[in-house]
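To: structure desk
From: M.T.
Subject: fold request, one chain
Message: Could you run this one when you get a chance? Sequence is below, nothing fancy, just the single chain.
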Amino acid sequence: MPWTNQGGGGPWGPRGGGGSGGNNGSGGWGSGGQGGGPQGPDIEELLRRGQDRLRDFLPGNLGGKGFSLIVLIAIAIWMGSGFYTIAPEEQGVVLRFGDYNKTSQPGLNYHFPYPVESVIKVPVLTVRRVEIGYRSASAASRGQIRNIDDESLMLTGDENIIDVNFVAQWAVKDAGAFAFNIRNQSQTVKDAGESAMREIIGKSDIASALAGGREQVARETQELLQKILDEYETGILITELLLQRADPPPAVIESYRDVQRAKADQERLINEADAFKNRVVPEANGQAAQLVAEAQAYREQVVARAEGAAQRFVSVYEEYRQAKVVTKQRIYLETMEKVFQDMNKVVIDSGPGGAGVIPYLPLPELQKRAQSPNSVSSGDQQ
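Reply: Done. Structure tokens follow.
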């Protein structure tokens, strides 16, 4: 049922000062004479008193219109407080009653004033860095670093221990996700970077991690780290990952260097052996080819000589077959000519003039005579 004023007291009973006195009377906060319990405050009385007090602070007596004007000015000032500026290197995250509403870009922007909306400015172009495995010293001790063994010591795929120091440089690519999805952004990048590096080092052997494969390790770690951050929607972009140092632990670094020197000597000896092989094998192949060529020429020469002798024998046989006596005599004479060509000969007539002659062959004299020219010629040669 709608409320009606019955007695001028409002819904909370009659106002004080207008009814019975004594114990039944009360002030503005009291109760009516007919009430049986406590009553609430009179709203109309409160508004009237507030207006009276506001008029006391205002210059002159502006009345109701002046009060409305002041309220409008206050509202205008409140609405004007919603303008804000975002710097070129920033983005603004606008919150409406504490929840994410939108992301504002650099320049002049507007949002509903507090407490309806508020803005968080996030520097998105600032490149930050996180050191993993070590910490840089202060400016007073420039050039010195402090190694963090709990972060830097990692196990390789071939079960060796390696000491790794690296730097992850990052920036903000999504201001909303950066502001709301994670709390400690730098610690998140450090933990995710250490996890990614341990996974990549665990898949690599120590030789590739220490030598030629360092760039590949850094590249794969950056890709894996970015993938992890994207899966958690952190709004972080890894701009660069720098592998500062990758060495064996200090306790075994000298032994490792000895092993590396031994491997270098092994490689050097292998290279020298290969060079010697490359020099000797062609020479041996050349000599073998020369011997083969000489043997081939000798074979052809012997074959040609044998074929010539065979052809000559066939020719002689043809002549012998046509004239046996003459050919036999000619062959006999040619053979005897060859036999007696280089011998000392004494011819004795077997006819009547030589009858009764006793052949005397001074063989010792003939031998001396035969040897004397050789002796003289040999003496001349000396």
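Reply (cont.): Confidence is low (pLDDT under 50) at residues 1-38, 375-382. Let me know if you need anything else for the meeting.
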